[in-house]
Every structure is written in C-alpha cells, then in structure tokens.
Design goal:
The chain has 409 residues and is α+β, with helices and mostly antiparallel strands. It folds into three domains: 20-184, GAF domain (Beta-Lactamase, 2-Layer Sandwich); 201-252; 259-403, 2-Layer Sandwich (Heat Shock Protein 90). Helices cover 48% and strands 19% of the residues. The strands form two sheets. Strands 6-7-8-10-9-11 form a six-stranded mixed sheet, with helices on one face. A five-stranded antiparallel sheet has the order 2-1-5-4-3, sandwiched between helices. Helix 1 (5-32) runs antiparallel to helix 2 and helix 5 (158-224) runs antiparallel to helix 6. The longest helix is centred in the middle third of the chain and has 67 residues, at 158-224. The termini are far apart. The model is unreliable at 105-109 and 392-409 (pLDDT under 50).
C-alpha cells in the first residue's frame, strides 16, 4: 500500500517528536537523580554529547555572589585547553554576547567561533566553533552558558536548536534546585554552628576553669613544700583535663569554616594572608589565581587555607627567604595550591621526626583525599605542590618522592 506524501511527512514529524521527548525524558530523569550541582552539570554534558553527537562541551556559571564567570563542568576538552587552565579564564566572545543579551531566545542559540582557540594551531582537536546556549533562572537572572562543540561542526536544524534550548531550560532548573539545596544545607550548618557555640560554652569553658583550678592547687602545693605525691597527682589531673578538652575542641570545630574565610573566597583570604605576611615580615610576595571565582566545599577551603598558613609560617620561621609566591589553580575537577620560596631549603631525604609543620601538612592533605609533593634543595629554596580533588572519594595520601630543586627561584 503506497503512502501519500502527507502521510510520510506526518510520520517524519512523529519520529522527530518521539526523539525529542526521548532526549528530554532522559535528561530530566538524570537530573532528577542529582542534587549535587557539579554532578548534575556533568550529567547534562554527557547526555547532550550522546544525543546530539558532539564530542566536547563545557558549562560556564556565574558566581551567585560575585557574578564572575567560572568553568563549572567540562567534557573532553581539547589538550590546548585541558592542559592550560588559564586559557579558560577571563572573558570571551560568547560570555560578552551573553551579558549583552544577544543570546536570549531559541532563535539566537547560535554557532559561534570560539575566541579561546581560534588563534591556536596545536592541541585543538580540530575544534573552532561551538553552540552557545544561555542559561537563565526562573526570574530571568543570568546563570551561565552551555557550550557544545564537535570536530566537524554541522549546521544545526531549527528543531535541534529548539531542543538544545529546552535542554538548557532543564539544566537551569537543576542549577536553581541545587543552589537552593546548598543554601538549605548552609542554613542547617548555621543552626548547627549556633548549637556548637552553646556546647563549647557549656563544656570547654567549664573544662578550662577546672584546669585553672588544678594548676592553682599545684602551685599552692609547690609553695607549701607539700610532698611530691600530692603535687604529682594535681599535675596528672591537669594533663588529663587538658587532653580531654583538646579532644573536645577538635570534635566541636571539626567542620566549621575558618574565620578568615567568612564572607570571602579562598583566593581573597589567601591574598589577605599574603598581604599581612608582606607587611609584618618584609617578604616580597607574589600571588596568582586561576579559577578563583569557582566555589569550593568549605572543608577544602578550610584545609587549603590552613595548609597555606602552616607553609608560610615555616617560610618566615625557618627559610630565611626574601621572596615567596603562591599559585591557586581551580578547575571543575581539582584545585592546586603551589607555594614556592627562595630560602635556605633543606635536604628532603632528611626530615626530622619533630618537624610537626610538615607532619600537619601531610595529615591535612590526606584528610582532603589529596596529594602533597615537596621539592627542596639547600640554598635554593622549597616548593610545595598540593593537589586536591574537588569531589574526593575519601581520605588518602600519596606523597610524591621529594626531589632536589634544580631551578633557581
């Protein structure tokens, strides 16, 4: 039985609608399973890459506090971009166009030249163009841009453009939901912080008072020339109380943000720390950051800030350095902190057992699931390279073998 052209057209349209519904259903189902923002973004990138036959993609988000753009998720970046995070930093054509409002509406989801790689020859995997899909919140607040690209870019049909825009709408909803979830968690953390403050007041304050009382008793026994047994007992009681209260303090403040990070990004807090160091120690300091607008989990921010504090304290107290530089590089998958000085250095093969600063750095790196590499040479300087995954599977530590420095800072 021969089919009429009208029937064939209706059949093609029905297939197209079924394809669109299948794609949107798959994306919706995947997003429904995720409340973690980073994982939701990666999920959408993977789905879009599969259904639209594209190889590469990345998502820009605007920091909801500073409105600065940062790369929130990537998929198969070409080596030129993957190996040089600084190329994904700062402004570009699609972000400028987005801020100017030229990407609004499905008809303006356009294929544009990627200004980040247009002048590169090697390592681009043949990429030159990408489709830019604007992301907006329900109140039309700008959220970011979804970019997808393939090696041999094809002209997108109006149906594909519309479908990509709808996928962008679904992603925008997921971003809003994830951020609302994060805010609810932060609100819960604030309530927990208040509870812990009361607990600290009711436990540590009393414990410290008891320690003071025992020390006063020990002092009285000492002045009165009392037998050493009573004096020894008072000292033992003091040590017992001190250890108990120290453990209580560690338990109580385990996951609270460090005070210098309240209301600041990690990069802002590090910049302030270095400025204070330069003022107080007459050190020449240098600070560089890539991806500084990228938000990090509080535990990572606190851990890296404390590691920077410890490392810089070591520089001031032991290195006799004239210059120190700090580099903070944040990508969607990991954050790297590099601290270098041109001080006296040391032999990394001989680290004293009582060198508690390095022990503390090792422990913090392990707790963050990261790696710590130490390079140092006598009279050349020291370099600490800390690498921490943004979504660490659990505590682990791999300390690269320390090696002598061959470069002169």
């Amino acid at each position: 039985m021969a089919h009429t052209p009208a029937f064939a057209s209706e059949t093609a349209q029905l297939r197209q609608r079924n394809r669109e519904l299948s794609i949107l259903n798959a994306i919706t189902a995947a997003l429904h399973r995720e409340v973690d923002l980073t994982q939701a973004l990666r999920t959408v990138l993977a789905q879009v890459a599969e259904f639209f036959d594209v190889h590469t993609g990345w998502i820009w988000l605007l920091n909801d506090t500073t409105c600065e753009p940062y790369v929130a998720a990537v998929q198969n970046l070409p080596p030129a971009l993957a190996n040089n995070p600084s190329l994904m930093e700062g402004d570009c054509y699609c972000l400028r166009t987005y801020r100017e409002g030229d990407l609004e509406g499905a008809a303006n989801v356009n294929v544009v030249t990627c200004s980040r790689i247009k002048n590169l020859v090697d390592g681009t995997d043949g990429l030159r163009y990408h489709a830019s899909i604007p992301l907006y919140a329900s109140n039309n607040t700008r959220l970011g841009v979804l970019n997808v690209a393939s090696e041999d870019w094809r002209e997108l049909s109006s149906e594909d453009l519309r479908l990509l825009y709808t996928a962008g709408d679904l992603l925008s909803i997921a971003i809003e939901r994830a951020r609302l979830y994060e805010r609810s968690v932060q609100l819960g953390a604030s309530e927990e912080r208040n509870r812990l403050a009361r607990e600290i007041h009711d436990t540590l304050a009393q414990g410290l008072a008891a320690i003071a009382l025992q020390l006063e008793s020990a002092e009285a026994f000492l002045e009165a020339g009392t037998d050493t047994g009573r004096l020894r007992y008072a000292i033992r009681q003091t040590l017992t109380l001190t250890r108990a209260n120290l453990e209580e303090a560690r338990r109580s403040v385990l996951d609270l943000r460090a005070a210098p990070l309240e209301g600041r990004t990690l990069s802002d807090a590090l910049a302030a720390l270095l400025q204070k160091l330069a003022t107080e120690s007459n050190l020449d300091v240098d600070f560089n950051t890539v991806g500084g607008a990228h938000p990090l989990p509080p535990r990572i921010e606190v851990g890296l800030y404390r590691m920077a504090q410890e490392a810089l304290t070591n520089v001031v107290q032991h290195a006799a350095a004239g210059h120190v530089s700090v580099h903070l590089i944040t990508t969607p998958d990991a954050v790297q902190l590099i601290i270098e000085d041109n001080g006296r250095g040391f032999d990394p093969a001989i680290i004293p057992q009582d060198h508690y600063g390095l022990i503390g750095l090792n422990e913090r790196a392990r707790l963050l699931g990261g790696t710590l590499r130490i390079e140092s040479s006598v009279q050349v300087g020291t370099r600490l390279d800390i690498h921490v995954p943004v979504s660490a599977p659990g505590p682990s530590l791999h300390v690269e073998p320390a090696s002598p420095r061959e470069d002169v800072l």
